[in-house]
Amino acid sequence: MTRDDAFYWLNEAYAVAQNELNLVNTEYTVPVKYTVSVLNGTQEYLSPSDFGHLLSIADSDEEEITHISYRDTLTNDSATGELYYYIRNLYIGFWPTPTEDKTVYIIYTAKSVTLSSYYDTVYLPNNNFYFLLDY
Fold first, then answer.
1. What is the C-alpha to C-alpha distance for residues 135 and 11, in angstroms, rounded to an integer?
2. 54, 85 in Cβ contact below 8 A?
């Protein structure tokens, strides 16, 4: 077994541990609010590199923005004037296309980091890293 094999196995165990923690406590891997500056005429924005699972999107007044499926953005008109969000691959989009600049806050669970060195820090509650050793 090579060192690379050991790190693949270790990263799998770390991802499993964090996913299990997220099932019990959805806020465990939630970073600080991620701020997106939504610009007039720009519909889609690249999601953060550690983006795992979306919990909520709200505007600067803390009003939650409603989800809409991407398919519905292709067939519906935008007569309501309400802003919606959708997820398309690596992008978070807003529909209808925003006509004014605004700030939006995204709260999401982060993917586990990839361990590549013996000196990387493992973030598990109460230093319960023995799960990784037993894996």
1. 10
2. no
20 three-state secondary structure: helix
What confidence tens digit (pLDDT) does each residue in 102-133 have? 999 999 888 878 888 888 887 777 767 777 77
Q: 29-71 pLDDT, tens per residue? A: 777 789 999 999 999 999 998 888 888 999 999 899 999 998 8
Does a cis peptide bond (omega within 30 degrees of 0) precede residue 48?
no
Tokens of 63: 């009003």
The partner residues of 109 in beta bridges, in order of sequence, read: 53
Helix (H) and strand (E) counts in the chain? 3, 7
